[in-house]
Design a protein that fits this description.
The protein is an all-alpha fold. It is built from 13 helices and no strands. The chain folds into 2 domains: 71 residues, putative rabgap domain of human tbc1 domain family member 14 like domains (Helicase, Ruva Protein, domain 3, Orthogonal Bundle), CATH 1.10.8; 141 residues, Cyclin A, domain 1 (Orthogonal Bundle). One of its GO terms (molecular function) is small GTPase binding.
């Protein structure tokens, strides 16, 4: 995974001096020793790499990674990825409540949420949304917690509801979800961040936690 982490970024190339691949390796190995229950899971390389680019500091990146994986997003990067799978199901339930026409479209064509949003959750929008927008989202993520991920996802879906509903088959739906993460709506980060706090409407942690409990039980019962 080291060579696949931001290959287009000059600071991560082996010819760079200093090469941030070495820093990334140190952070990931240290975290694997620190949190043996998680160790290393695919996707963590992008999260840690982004933190290194932001902080330019190995120790700060380590502790921010620990805050994300250990406190804000528990079980996202554990071997079973139960937290990640649960939250994707929670998003599906929230879409049923807030954008029911899209939920009905997904159900009618048998499209599982994990197929269209897994990278949103695993990479926390890295390489999906523009860099400046991702940085603003991460500010809110550290300050307000995981609720922000749902706010961003719901805003993208709600703003592009008419466009998504044009889809007529399974591949078309998947393609629409790729396209809604591009364009001026997401590049204008200031207005986008305002939208994520208004478009989804009320979204309490009590509601999210209740849905998490239900979705987690459902996933566990499915084995």
């Amino acid at each position: 995974d080291m060579n696949r982490t931001f290959p287009d970024n000059v600071k991560f190339r082996k010819t760079a001096d200093p090469c941030l691949q070495h820093t990334l390796y140190n952070v990931l190995v240290a975290y694997a020793h620190h949190n043996k229950a998680v160790g290393y899971c695919q996707g963590m390389n992008f999260i840690a790499g982004y933190l290194i680019l932001i902080t330019k500091n190995e120790e700060e990146s380590f502790w921010l990674l620990d805050a994300l994986i250990g406190r804000i997003l528990p079980d996202y990067y554990s071997p079973a990825m139960l937290g990640l799978k649960t939250d994707q199901e929670v998003l599906g339930e929230l879409v049923k409540m807030k954008v029911p026409a899209v939920a009905e479209l997904m159900e009618r064509h048998g499209v599982m949420w994990t197929l269209v949003v897994s990278r949103w959750f695993i990479c926390l929008f890295i390489d999906i949304l523009p860099v400046e927008t991702v940085l603003r989202i991460w500010d809110c993520l550290f300050y307000e917690g995981s609720k922000i991920i749902f706010r961003v996802a719901l805003t993208l879906i709600k703003q592009h509801q008419a466009f998504i509903l044009e889809a007529t088959n399974f591949p078309d739906i998947c393609d629409k979800f790729k396209q809604i993460t591009k364009g001026t709506f997401v590049t204008e980060c200031h207005s986008f961040m305002q939208k994520i706090f208004t478009d989804p409407g009320s979204l309490s942690m009590a509601t999210i936690n209740k849905l998490r409990e239900t979705c987690r039980e459902k996933l566990l019962s499915q084995g």
